[in-house]
Structure formats: C-alpha cells, structure tokens
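tool_log.txt
---
The assistant was asked to compare two proteins side by side. It first ran the structure predictor on the initial sequence, then on the second. Raw inputs and outputs are pasted verbatim so the downstream comparison step can read them without reformatting.
(1)
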Amino acid sequence: MIDIINNEYLTLILIPILIGVLEVIKKSDLFNPKFIPIASLVLGILLGIIFTGFNVKDGIIAGLFIGLSAVGLYSGTTNAIEGIKARE
C-alpha cells in the first residue's frame, strides 16, 4: 500500500493543482459544470497512478483521496463564496 505519510506533501500539492485544472475546465466550457466532481475523480485517479509510479492499485487509492479532497475543497469554497455574496 502507498505510504501516504512520506508523500503527504506531494499529495497536498496535487490537490490545489487539481482544483486549478478543474477551474480551467469549468471556465473553458469543455463540458457541463455539473460533471466537475466526475472530472475531479478521473483526473485524481490519473494523477494518483502517475504519483505512485504507475502502480494501479495504489494509484487508484491515492487518486480517490486526491480527487475527493479536491472536489470537496472546491465545493466548500464555492458554497462559502455564494453564502457571503448572498448576505451582501
């Protein structure tokens, strides 16, 4: 199994990078923004596989962690911004 503890810094770097990629995809109208969570999971798994040296099993686990973290942070930030704007 992937040793997340030793690679936590790289994982923490990949999450904001993935959020940036998702934002670019959203702004470019490549596909419906409703599918951003699916794109996050797919891209997270791809990054995870690359990140683990093409070990597919560990890459999927790491990728799910990266993808789900990115989409959660993305969604939480978006909801917080909308909530702040609604109060103004």
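(2)
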Amino acid sequence: MAKTSMSQRKTMGRVMHEYAHGELKSGPRGKGGKVRSRRQAIAIALEEAGASKYESKAKNRRNLARSKAKEATGRTAQQETEGKARVGARGKRESSRAMGGQNAKTNAKTNAKTTTRRSPRRRTARRASR
C-alpha cells in the first residue's frame, strides 16, 4: 500500500475519533446503526480517506474529494456533535476565522454564505512614514 497523504491521515483520524466517541455510523446515511467493531471503523476510515487497497485510484480520489467536501461544509458526525466549523478548529465550541469566530453549531447554516475575505495589510503606508 502506498504512503498516505496528510489529508488522508487527517480524514482517517477524524473517522477514528468519531468511532471512539460512538458517533460513527455504518450504511447509507447512517441507517446501519453505530459501528461497534474497531476493524470495521478502520475499513470505513480507509474508504473515506481514499486509501483503500480494494478500490481503484479513481474511486479512491472520488472518496477523498467527497470526504473533504463533507468536512469543509461541517457535515461530519464530529462537527455536528461538537459544533466545530471545520476539522482542526481548536477548542470544543470554537469555529474558524472564516465563520466569523461564532459558534459554528448554531450558526453554520447562516454563516456559510456570508463569509468575507480578510483584506491584505497595507505596507505602502508604513513605508512612506519611515
């Protein structure tokens, strides 16, 4: 098996976190119930991360892209229960800067389309004053 990329490792870590907290579900849309087997959780993690040796390269790429889109929009079980805007946001209820620093769990839908880019710092004014 090839070496996994950083994004694949983060996705696998997120899935295993969901398993450890009892949030990981199996089947389409979680209809299969909670995952109780660590072995099954690892299989799901590899599948979501696009690192499965049983899938083609194209299918693996599709799976990773789907997982990253899910993480970016805050639709993972971890984000829904813990209220994070994105995977990697620090603290239990903290959201990313892109979400305006507000509580992502309650404001994720309203803030999703109202994010603004930070304006770049003005260096010319600083140079002129020297």
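---
observation on (2): The chain has a mean pLDDT of 80. The two ends are 57 Å apart (CA to CA).
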